[in-house]
Design brief:
This protein is α+β, with helices and mostly antiparallel strands and 258 residues long. It has one domain: q2cbj1_9rhob like domain (Jelly Rolls), CATH 2.60.120.620. It contains 8 helices and 12 strands. Strands 1, 2, 3, 4, 5, 6, 7, 8, 9, 10, 11 and 12 form a 12-stranded antiparallel β-sheet that branches. Strand 2 and strand 3 form a beta hairpin. Helix 1 runs parallel beside helix 6 and helix 2 crosses helix 6. The termini are far apart.
Length: 258
């Protein structure tokens, strides 16, 4: 019987198998028709998600909660703890097979964010009644394009991903969606085009979802890097994690260099 723990090679093989079964041409057309938005149901194999389940228990003590009135309430874990303690989650972000599929769908040169970007791969935790994110674009502070890839993980909630498509496409009616992002489902979109939110969590519910960010070149001027870091420190990961590299947290392992 197979165990939940897998080597990086096993993980990459499973993602490659899933990507090989995708109709890239059809997916690209849907992505274009929806103004750079696409849902791939149950893409990530359950064996990988089972390993994520184990890694979640290790990451839970590192969830940083934040509250911005009328905009956001919830918890987040940045890339750094994920890189240190969650090899399967970390491995999916860096998967060549996954990135190859993203390139085929978008028709663009999709690359990982720079290592200094703590939002390149993050875990969002909705665990208290009323946790939510208000309407927003994933505005790119980079000099070029940025994509968001959401991956459904654990969801025992009535919360929904709310999306408005075509909001910046002249002459096209806005399309509204309310989605439950199922386990292993991918939601890919251009951060500057899809207006989206997460509806409030109900009492006794929980929802964990993974966000991955990709760019074309990763170029950003110093002022915009500061703006991006301030946003991440206030809204997501805390000042210590963003500006001090997490020094002072108890991981049992040294913090990675930024």
């Amino acid at each position: 019987m197979e165990t939940a723990t897998q080597t990086p090679l096993d993980l990459e093989r499973r993602i490659a198998d899933a990507a090989a079964g995708a109709d890239e041409e059809a997916l690209r057309q849907t992505y274009i028709d929806q103004d750079e938005f696409l849902v791939l149901d149950r893409f990530l194999p359950e064996e990988i998600l089972q390993q994520w389940d184990e890694e979640l228990e290790v990451l839970k003590p590192h969830i940083h909660r934040s509250y911005i009135p009328k905009h956001k309430k919830g918890g987040s874990v940045s890339y750094q703890p994920i890189a240190e303690m969650a090899p399967a989650l970390h491995g999916v972000y860096h998967s060549p097979a996954l990135q190859g599929l993203l390139k085929a769908v978008t028709g663009s040169d999709v690359n990982e964010c720079p290592a200094s970007d703590l939002h390149r791969c993050a875990l969002y935790a909705y665990t208290e009644e009323g946790d939510h994110i208000g309407w927003h674009y994933d505005t790119s502070y980079y000099k070029d394009k940025r994509w968001t890839l959401l991956v459904g993980f654990q969801d025992a909630s009535t919360s929904k991903l709310l999306c408005r498509l075509h909001t910046r496409q002249e002459g096209h009616a806005v399309e509204e969606l309310a989605l439950r992002v199922g386990r292993g489902t991918l939601v890919l979109f251009s951060g500057d085009k899809v207006y989206h939110a997460v509806s409030p969590l109900g009492a006794g519910e929980h929802r964990y979802i993974v966000t991955m960010q990709y760019v074309t070149t990763g170029r950003m001027n110093p002022f915009m890097r500061f703006v991006s870091n301030m946003k991440d420190s206030i809204a997501y990961f805390g000042l210590r994690q963003v500006f001090l590299g997490g020094r002072g947290r108890k991981t049992g392992r040294p913090a990675l260099s930024p």
